[in-house]
Amino acid sequence: MNTKNLVLMALLVGVGTVLYFVIPGYGNGMKPDFMLTMMFIGIFLFPTFKEAFSISLVTGVLSGIFTTFPGGLVPNIIDKAITGLVFLAVVLALKHLSKNIAVGVILVGLGTLLSGAIFLTSALLIGGLPDAFGVLYTIVVLPAVAMNAIAFIIIFPIITNILKRSKFHTAVTPA
């Protein structure tokens, strides 16, 4: 792995962590996970197995450590690992379309839906949920889809423009 890639992925995860702390919780203390958005951006920029697995694992551990969801450490790690690799597979399959910001927004929305389903399912199987699955999915995951899509629309072009100006080589350059 390239050191520049690792540094950029660390910055993305760091920004996601800061955003996580400044966003208030709702729905039994759950929060939208902006670390997930940053993970998706990292996978868009560096669509290789090593980078995707690395950023997914780090994002899962940090999301789990800082979660306000009871018993959320292991479900976060499971969720991010699976979601990151599935997201990578989709990005690689749609590589020719992934340069389009609209396609990126759709993929981030679908990735957030998948992440929420995996997180809640693994939390249910490991330790139970504080409320019904459908209720949590509706009041936490669906708003997170909108927030992650908006965050992606704002952050992704900024990052890609900065990288383009610095002649940083990534797989995705905005159209």
Automatic annotation (TrEMBL):
Membrane-spanning intervals of the chain: 6-27, 39-65, 77-94, 101-129, 135-159
Cited Pfam families: TrpP (PF17099)
Highest taxon of the lineage: Bacteria
UniProt KW keywords: Membrane, Transmembrane, Transmembrane helix
Entry-linked InterPro entries: TrpP (IPR031360)
Protein name: Tryptophan transporter TrpP
Taxonomic source organism: Ureibacillus acetophenoni
